[in-house]
Amino acid sequence: MKTDSVATQHFKMNRTPTDRRLVLSLALLVQLVLFSFAQLALAATRDLERVRIGYSVGGLIPFPLIVAKENRYFEQAGFDAELINIPPTIAVTALVSGDIQYAIFAGTILNAAVRGLPVKIVMVYNDRPLFSLMARPDIRSIKELKGRVLGVATLSSGESFLSRRLLKEAGIDADKEMTLRVIGNTPDRLQALRAGVVDATTLTLPADIHAERLGLRRLAFMGDTLESINGGFGVSDRWLQQRPDQIKKMIGVAFRGMAHARAQRQDSIALIMSKWKLEREIAEKAFDMMIKTWTDSGVASDQALQAGIEESLKVSNTKQPVPISRVADFSLAREVYRELKMK
Q1: How far is 127 from 138, CA to CA, in rounded Å?
Q2: Cα(211)–Cα(134) distance, rounded to whole angstroms?
Q3: Interatomic CA distance for residues 126 and 113, integer angstroms
Q4: Strand, helix or coil at 248?
Q5: Which of 33, 62, 254, 297 is 20 to 30 A away from residue 136, measured at CA?
Q6: Are 195 and 142 found together in one domain?
Q7: Are 181 and 99 in contact (CB under 8 A)?
Q8: Cβ distance 249 to 124 under 8 Å?
Q9: Predicted pLDDT at 179
């Protein structure tokens, strides 16, 4: 049994009323300090502005925002950011209704804007696709896909348009010379490919590397050949008109996340290993492939936007021209980029 030291016993036996009051006062002071810190933390949380961002798990498209979240860049900008896993097409509906303020599916946002929905792309941080066209192991080239089954997320998703573009460059009209089968998000498409439900599909990083490990064949990494609208912020037209100040701050957060990831390669690889549950070798390969697709300025070229518009019009069977100004407004991204370059 533990016993007090002689000095402690002497102090307890000889404590005066003044000593007891001093101990009580110190205890009360400590409680007041702890209470004050708790109140300050609560007040700080209340001062943060709540924002909701739609994204999809599985791929690395949201990586700049994950980095920003991990390093508290959202909070430093005054935001309590909630990242919500949501399918791209539902994210567009949620933007219009106001249930979320941002979505990172820039390609799907473009397609929705072409169809007349009141949404716009305000920043693009991936101007090359993070997708690979993957196939069953017995298929050795893209040309062998003619007459086969292609798995897509939806008929109007960004990745399905990229598949069509890549196949068209190889001489295959996917809408006429292949069967397009709607499967769903990345994990579902990978499972469908493994099960032989489809002959090929697009998979995003790092799912494509995992698929290779499982014996599936990479026919092409789209980031090597295609310029496209991929990851970036989409907002509703209403939000763009009402909250340009907030949007600028959010774009700044994304730039900070990208800068941190580039400067801290080992930390970034460790984060990929942790969040995506990957081995180091796969995480390193995925990181190096990913940063090749990032923009410096946060905007996409007019050529990439126009290509996306034309693909979307083709699927919707309409010939009415759609101006670039309907699908994108990069004025705020350009402002943020100029301000960052001046620092």
Answers
A1: 31
A2: 8
A3: 19
A4: helix
A5: 62
A6: yes
A7: no
A8: no
A9: 97
Q: Are residues 122 and 135 in the same domain?
A: no
Question: Are the C-beta atoms of 201 and 162 separated by less than 8 Å?
Answer: no
Instruction: Give residue 161's pLDDT.
Output: 84
Q: Kindly list the averaged pLDDT for each block of 10 residues, start to end, along the chain of length 343.
A: 50 53 54 48 67 89 96 97 93 97 93 95 93 96 97 85 91 96 93 97 92 96 89 97 98 98 97 93 94 94 92 80 96 97 87
pLDDT (0 to 100) of residue 312? 86
pTM: 0.77
Find tokens 């925002």 and name the residue: 65
Give the separation between CA 61 and CA 104, rounded to whole angstroms. 8
Amino acid at site 69: K
DSSP assignment letter at 142: G
- Which residue do the tokens 């010379």 mark? 177
Same domain, 123 and 233: yes
Q: Domain range holding 211? A: 131-224
Residues in the chain: 343
